[in-house]
Amino acid sequence: MPRRRYALRDRIAALDPERDHLEIYQLSAGREFPWDYTRALEFALFRTYCVPSISRLLAATGEFEKRPQQRYDDTALLMAEIAAHGYDSPRGREALKVVNRAHGRFAISNDDMRYVLSTFVHDPIDWLTKYGWRPPHEHERLAAFHYYREVGRRMGIRDIPESYSAFADFKRSYENEHFVFSPTNQKIGEYTVGLFAAWFPSFLRPLVRLAVRGMLDEPMLRAFGFRPAPRWVGAAGDLGLRTRAFALRFFPPRRTSVLGVSPGNRTYPGYPAGYRPSDLGAPAPPDVSTSR
């Protein structure tokens, strides 16, 4: 492989994963693995819908039924704003304010918030370990933890574990206890699969729905109440992603970051031109009881 293909990895290796976590995360998510991070974070959010207390809240708001694409774009763009500009930058603080305002309308447990945060740390790293064009560097793993730990603190999330491995243990334990079937899991899961399928021409949508099921592990399938896809579907998807990863090894490194640049989003044409983070997010919903 051309040595310059690994120039950014070498730059990441020379940085401190705690002190320089924002720079490392920006290099990793914005230049080394932008497509992979996008897909992995989509599935990370999808994974959280396997927790009945989370899916119950989402079902009660009605937003996933009425405006699934806007809710997807709001979440993706707000998180990208924080990553692209930094959580203490003016745009980053504005994006965090929008996120905190949205969460503050509901009685969301701290444990559910911690769990969602853990998926943002660990699911992309797990994805890159399987499907990245190179394995994630240890500094990328640790930087993702330190980055989201700081984001979580600014969201008021308490008792975030002190290390990458401890957060992974919390995530695994939470899923073992809380991944159980509920009708709202299934409802939100179906809306989400429908959203993914809607991005493709109508004749491909049944195949997309099948492919999404093929990407889900057994605990997710049980929690959603979805039938497993035939084994060949998962095998074909796995082969396709691994083939893509191999081919990308021969591509030159990306010169500019794509974080915070989303001309292809379907709700805000031309974003970020003419938009502020405060323009994103759902309006205040009618009174929704979410206490558990």
From TrEMBL:
One Pfam match: MPAB_Lcp_cat
Domain of life according to the entry: Bacteria
Domain ER-bound oxygenase mpaB/mpaB'/Rubber oxygenase catalytic, first and last residues per copy: 60-232
Any GO molecular function: oxidoreductase activity
Transmembrane segments: none
Record region (Disordered): 270-292
PANTHER family per the UniProt record, alphabetical: ER-BOUND OXYGENASE MPAB_MPAB'_RUBBER OXYGENASE CATALYTIC DOMAIN-CONTAINING PROTEIN (PTHR36124:SF1), PTHR36124
Name under which the protein is recorded: ER-bound oxygenase mpaB/mpaB'/Rubber oxygenase catalytic domain-containing protein
